[in-house]
Each structure stands twice: as C-alpha cells, then as structure tokens.
Amino acid sequence: MFTKLKSLLYNNEIRAILFQVLAVVVIAYFAYQAFDNMMLNIEQRGIRSGFGFLSDEAGFAVNDNFFLEYSPASTNLQAFYVGIVNTLIVAITGIFSASIIGLIIGISRLSSNYLIRKIATVYIEIFRNIPILLQILFWYSIALNTFPSARNSINFFDSIFLNSRGLYLPKLIAGTELYLVLASFVIGLVGYIFIKKRSDKKHDETGVKTNTIPHFLALVLLLPIVAYFTFGVQLEYPALKGFNFRGGVDLSIEFFALAFSLSIYTATYIAEAIRSGVESVDKGQKEAAAALGLKSSWAMRLVILPQALRVAIPPIINQYLNLTKNSSLAAAVGYTELVTIFSGTVLNVVGQAIEIVMLTMLVYLTISLVISLVLNIFNKKMQIKGR
Amino acid sequence: MNKYLKIVSASLLAVGFYNAQADTLSDVQAKGSLTCGVSTGTPGFSSPDSSGNWSGVDVDVCRAVAAATLGDAKKVKFVPLTAKERFVALSSGEIDMLSRNTTWTHTRDTSLGLTFAGVNYYDGQGFMVRKSLGINDVKDLDGATFCIQAGTTTELNLADYFRSNKMGFKAVTYDTSAQTKGGFEAGRCDALTSDVSQLAGLRSTLKDPSSAVVLGNVISKEPLGPVVRKDDNTWLNIVRWSLNAMIEAEELGVTSATIDNASTSPGVQRLQGKSGKLNESLGLSKDWSRNIIAQVGNYGESFERNIGMSTPIQLPRGVNQLWIKGGILYAPAFR
Ligand SMILES: N[C@@H](CCC(=O)N[C@@H](CS)C(=O)NCC(=O)O)C(=O)O
C-alpha cells in the first residue's frame, strides 16, 4: 500500500499535476487574502462600493459622440456605453487603415524598384521607433496648428468643412427615402456578388473569363446613385453658428489625430509581418507562377499573397490587439474613449476605482477575445484551403 | 497598457495589501521625509523652478507639516499628480498627504475614504477667453467650446452652469494643465475654464498673455485644501492644525522674523511652544508650531510670497483675508 503511494508520488505525470494544483492553491490563497484585506480597508475607510453608481447622473459632457443619446443629464452607464462605442470606432478605423497602409508598405518593401523599397524602409524605421504616445501628441499638435480656425474653415461645396476642431459632414436624416436608397444598395451588392460567383465558376470550369467590372459599376455604384436622385435623401448640413459648426456629423480633430497616429504606427508592424510572410513563401512558387505565364502582379495576388498571409496573420492579429489597447492613450489628446470617460472622469466623480477598473478591463478583455476569435477562424479557413 | 491605468491598478493592488493599522506619523518619521502630492505645475500653488525646487501656497502646507513632524520644512518629497491621479495616489498610500488645489466636496469627503483637513484657499470657477472674441460675460459663450482638465470639479460645474442657463457648449477634456493651456493657445477651444486662482497663473504663462482676458464671472465655490486618508485621525489633526497654526500666527501678528521674540501674550507663547501642551495629543515635539512659523512663515507671508500682488500671479487677498479684516479665513481656537 505504502510503496504503491510512494511510486505514485514518483510518477512524473502525477507529480506535475500535484505541483500545479499546489501552485493554484497558493495563488488562490494570496488572491483571497488580498481581496479580503481590500474589502476590509474599503469598509473601514468608508469607501463607497457596489454598482449603484451606474444609475447615478453623470453630470459631465462628452466631446465625441457618434450616435448614442448622451447629455450631462444621462447616467454613468450611458457614459460607459459612449466610451465603449468610441473605443470601438477608433479601433476599427485604425485597424482598417493600418491594414491598408501596412499592406502597401509591406509589398513596397519587396519591390524591385530601389526608390520604392527605400522609401518603405525609411517609413518603417521612422514610425516604428518613435514611441506611439509621442506620435499621437505630435500629429495632434500639427493638426491643431495647421488647420484653419472655425471661421476660416476649408469648405467643400458648402457641405463639408474642415478646421482645427474637426471635420463636419452632412448627416443623413433617417426616413423612408434613406431606407429605400440603402435597400437599393444592398440589392445591388447582392446582385453583383451573385453575378461574380457565377462568372468565377464559369472561369474555373471553362477558363473563359468574363469582365464583371461593368456589372459592378452598374449595380453597386449606379443603382444607389439613381435611387438617391429619384427618392432624394434628406440631409442636415453643418453650418457655422456662433462659435462652432452646428448640425451634421462632426468628427473631432482628436479622433483623427489618434486614429491617424495609431494607423501609421501599427502599419509598420503589419508591413513587416507581410514582408516576412511573403519572404517565407518558397521561391519555387514564384518561379512556378512565372512558368505558368502569370504576370508578376497576378502572381503576387493569386499565388504569393494567399500563402504569405497564412504566415502573416498571427502577428497581424497581435497588432490589431495592440492598436486597440493603445487607443487608451487617447487621454493625452482628449479623445473621449472608454479610459478617458470611464476610468478617468467617472472614476474621479464617484471614486469607485475597483468596480470601474474591473469593468474597463472586462471591456478590453472582451474586445481582445473577439478580435482573436474572428481572426483565428479566418486563419483556420486559410490553413485548410492552402494544402 | 496605458500609464494611468497601470497606476490605478497598481494602486488597487496596494489597497489590497495595505495594512489597515495606519500610523502615518511614525511612517513619516521613520522615512525621515514627508511624501506630499502636488500638481504637475500650477504657478503660485505648486510649481517647480528650473532646478526642481517646489514653491507655492499648497507646497507651503506640505512644508508646514514637514516642519511640524520632522522639524525641517525641507524634508518633503513632492509627487506631481494630475487631477485624475491624485485621489488614487492618496488612498493607495503612495503619498502621505495631498495638497493640490483640491476642492472640498461632499462626495470626495464622504465616499472616497478620504478627509479634508481644512481650507487654505477659497476659490471659485472662472473663465479665460481669447481677447479677440470681444466677450466679457459667460452668458455670451452660448455654444462655445471649452478646454478643461479631466477629473476636476471644473468638468461638472461647467455642465451644471450651462444646463441651468439653457445654453449649449462643447468641452475638450485634457489630462494636464499644460495640455489644457496648449489646446487653448492653439485655438481648439474658445475659452479655458478652471479655478480663478489658476487662470491668472495660466494666463501669465501664455506665449502672449495680452491675447487673453479673464472674465469677471465666478460660477462655483471651490474651497481648496489639503486631504488625508480617513483611517488616521492623529494624522488628520496634525495636518489640520499645521495649517491652523499658520493662520493663527497671522492673526497674532507673528511672522517668521518675530516668532522667536520674547512675548508676554499667552497666545504667542502657546504658538512658540513655551506654554500649553498642544503638542502632546498630536504626538509632536513642543516646538512643532514654532518650527512651522520660523521655517515657512504665517499664512499671510506664504500668500504674499507666492500669489500676492508683488508676484506675477497678483491675486488680491479678497475672501482669503482674516476674518478680523473682513475675510472668511478663520482658524478654530488655538488652545
Ligand atoms: N479645484 C478643482 C480643479 C483642480 C485642478 O486640477 N485644476 C487644474 C486647472 S487646469 C490644475 O490645477 N491642473 C494642474 C495639474 O494638472 O497639475 C478640483 O479640485 O477638482
């Protein structure tokens, strides 16, 4: 019996499990102690706790608000939602433009043209090596000091205005007309996808290629434009009234400074990921594509990139996550995203650091998990198709 | 992640492990220095000079407490904090006290686990506007954009005021006063709003001070004072009475130059530590209040040296005058 137990103890696998359990117990014990002590401190010092503050009146104004209902009379919970939406919008904008810039720079780095290659290299070296916070502050101050004042705004057709406070666009007024135009766009898009699928299938089967660009122009562009002019959509135009533009949609200069800096910074990493992805593709692949008579741009698009992306996607996922987290540097330029609004202002008004930081971290955790989930699914699809 | 979030989470951890048995005085004496939270730079209140020496009326409160507890007003370690960081820094124990133009409000006093130890400057919220706008009343600022600092009462008062007057406004919220000023200078906002006392200082540091004017309107009460943690009553008393000693000395007409002069006044003798036992319940040495006045000066001296009419800030005493001279400055009886 005893020897049996002893031999169990010497069993490597069982020992490993034993130590892990032990480690978990120790960590849990410390976490519990810390939590208990914290609760005691909170109680002794009379610090308010719980989530009741979420339904209290916020009492402060938020500068950037895209579509949610918010005023100083709203609750802290509504302020929290505005923060989440603003974080998501700047992150999505950043991810989108960083990907495009990154792809262009990454491919330029491999160009056979010396000048293009050098420019791409210099771009990467500069923007990757300056701390992101400095870049945000730099671009913000450039934007503040180069764009004109509200009164001297750059004016596009009396409907779009740009000045050192932001970009002002006409707003589409929701109504039957708008829905009809949107519907025509969706119908056009679905129609085009259907045609494209059919032509691709025909191409695969018979090798005959149909040009679908006219279909694209007609369905996706022309149809909504025609709909727009037949039904007419009501627009609300921004207009200078007193100190500021009122009406329309406004995108603050802080939003642009942040999204721009995050994009050009993150693009350097994406470019490098794409370059190493392309370089990882066997030389034979390119030669084989050439042997088939594919133009080099076609070879890139059809042969190299699909294989390169497989290698490049995991590091790119990482960069998307970094960009999202870096968006919390917004406080430096006053873009009102989650950390600025919630962990900044709300925390300072109600003082409940524990609850507020916990909620904030939960949001970032969720965003991170969703991004990695989506891209992992995409990644998996690519992997299987390739081989 | 971001630096601010890091500070907050580290502080939360610290709160978790923080020992509830607080004895700040012993901690300070064991360290041999007082760690005092101040602003990142508010001329006249707390700002460092080019060689890193801090000065200002808020700084003098820190120095007074150091003189009382350590016998040396120079033994202070200053920790510059933005408005957002200050309360977390205090409750986590990173600083021993906070003396950073902080408004005494109900919420801050009752639900943050902190206590205000007194008022060292009675302030109110005001506005600075670009002179070229030709505006001389807040009521003309309907629809304007304001530069403000995050985590301040300023944010809330602004919203309250414009709401109750049914006026529209936009606010761009920055982290530090340097950024807030930068936004104003670059024209991001039409007006900068903050405590009146800071407007004068901020204006004096603009590239072109004459391009801006401070409006006469005051829209709120901002009693500014030092703050301590709630769990240490002795420490609260030390900070409260160090400030009171400065006010009392002015009322008695005692200055840093005259504190050691022989006096027959019982009040002065108590301040000199020659009679009475005011030190005992605070756990300090007999000369604690004498050290404050000798090394830092009385309230009026500190005021004139840092923000008075002979300084660039040029603030009048106004309500911050002693009660016997028509102001509201009033120290409870020093006996
Ligand atoms: N008294 C107000 C405002 C205090 C405040 O932080 N004001 C700003 C004015 S711009 C300041 O002093 N900033 C200095 C700094 O950030 O270091 C409060 O307690 O909330």
Molecular structure report:
The complex is a heterodimer of chains A (387) and B (335). Chain A folds into 3 domains: 13-47; 55-173 and 234-381, MetI-like (MetI-like fold, Orthogonal Bundle), CATH 1.10.3720.10; 186-231, no CATH class. In chain A, 70% of the residues lie in helices and 6% in strands. Chain A has helices spanning 2-10, 12-44, 76-109, 114-129, 132-146, 176-206, 213-231, 253-280, 283-291, 296-326, 338-350, 353-386, and strands at 154-156, 160-163, 166-169, 171-172, 235-236, 239-241, 244-246, 249-252. In chain A, strands 1-2-3-8 form a 4-stranded antiparallel beta sheet. In chain A, strand 1 (154-156) and strand 2 form a beta hairpin. In chain B, the strands form 5 sheets. A 5-stranded mixed beta sheet of chain B has the order 10-9-11-8-12. A 3-stranded parallel beta sheet of chain B has the order 4-1-5. In chain B, strands 2-3 form a two-stranded antiparallel ribbon. In chain B, strand 9 (144-149), helix 6 and strand 10 form a beta-alpha-beta unit. The longest helix of chain B has 20 residues, at 233-252. The radius of gyration of chain B is 20 Å and the shape is globular. At the A-B interface, helix 2, helix 5, helix 11 and helix 12 of A face helix 1, helix 4, helix 5, helix 6 and strand 10 of B. The structure holds glutathione (GSH). Residues 39-42, 82-83, 101-103, 149, 152-154, 176-177, 180, 194-195, 198, 222, 224 of chain B line the site of glutathione (GSH).
Q: Which protein chains are joined by the largest interface, and how many residues does each one contribute?
A: A-B, 56 and 57 residues
The beta-strand count of chain A equals: 8
Largest sheet of chain A: 4 strands, antiparallel
C-alpha-based Rg of chain A, rounded: 27 Å
User: Can you tell me the CATH topology of the largest domain in chain A?
Assistant: MetI-like fold
Low-confidence stretches of chain A: none
CATH superfamily of the largest domain in chain B: Periplasmic binding protein-like II
Give the overall shape of chain A.
globular
Helix count from the secondary structure assignment of chain A: 12
Query: Which CATH C-level class of the largest domain in chain A is it?
Result: Mainly Alpha
Bin the helical content of chain A.
over 70%
Order of helices and strands of chain B: HHEEEHEHEHEEEEHEHEHEEEHHHH
- How far apart the termini of chain B lie comes to 52 Å
User: Strand share of the residues of chain B?
Assistant: 15-25%
